[in-house]
Amino acid sequence: MWAGIWLGMSACGTRQEAARTDAGMDDVVTRTIEWRPDSAGLLQDLVAAVRYVPLESTPESFLADISKIRVYRDELYIMDDGMRADYGIRVFGPDGAYRRHIGRAGKGPGEVIQIDDFTIRGDRLFIADGHAGKMVVYTLDGQFVEDIPLADADLASFAACDSGFLWTGDIYYRENPENRYGLYKTDDRMQPEWKRGKYDASSTRALLTEVSDSLLIWMQGGSDSVYFYNRQGHLTRCIHFDFPERHRIAYEKRREVRDLPADEKFDYYRIGEWNPAVVGPYLMGQITMPGGEWDVFMADLRDGRIYLDRGRYVVRDQTAGFYPVNDSTFVSWVTPDSETFLEKTEPRIAKLPDDVRKRIFDGDCALVFYTLK
């Protein structure tokens, strides 16, 4: 029901304008949201319930960490943070029960050396392996279908369209990018269709996030804008955050700011490009504040109001991904590493429930389901 809010936002209470995308793509109508933290609400006022679900842990299902979750047909497809081919893509039920494993390690047909990213379309799962220069296609029950050579193995992320795929190119910060792009599209056989947003000397890496069966988000590191794409590969909308001018990252400084430590020298707002999501009427993500403090935000796309966690750790791992389950629920995760770090740096924080905490410190990961009011 909320699709119309962010695909066809009116000018109610905000201004709309044409804005050039950071990567030099076509102009797009932009919704501007003023970032005024002094009047921001509290994230805890939006969350009705938090539920922890430890993942079943066996030799077949073990995950050292998590980098991506795709919620699809009432199952959770999970990629390990180490991109390890032997872990493949683990599939779990919403109760944390392990169901199956997709992918095989190796150099032969149907095998991958490393998992750079994965996506799902229909009854097929696609694993991109830039090291092997191919995309491996499986059925959702793990049967190998085919290998498809990659047209460009220099990838950072990708996502399935209704036909073909969208990709973002990787970037090498010590070199001048040549023939590397912030976004490009191929057909189903990996043949190029178009490229946009050629990286230049000030560019930072762009990433795609799969939000739902109809929505993709494209962002570039250090950007103050979030771009919405549909599954036809078309840019539909942009949300621009109007940060206080003295704390904005100028385009030409993004490479420099990228290398700054997140401490007292960091004097900017920076949205995390790896984990934006849309949940019901809210755009959410991670943000680094002036001074280097991390926070989680939600922006109400109806009235533009901002909500922040402000150190309450309602969202426990603030660097994890956020993935919608439905219009009122999203899922994230906690891991042994994230919980150890949190208890060390925030000793006064409330501990996890005893049974969940024991599982975490025994080496298991846990899903965290957040239900909004």
From TrEMBL:
<dbReference type="Pfam" id="PF17170">
    <property type="entry name" value="DUF5128"/>
</dbReference>
<dbReference type="InterPro" id="IPR011042">
    <property type="entry name" value="6-blade_b-propeller_TolB-like"/>
</dbReference>
<protein>
    <recommendedName>
        <fullName>6-bladed beta-propeller</fullName>
    </recommendedName>
</protein>
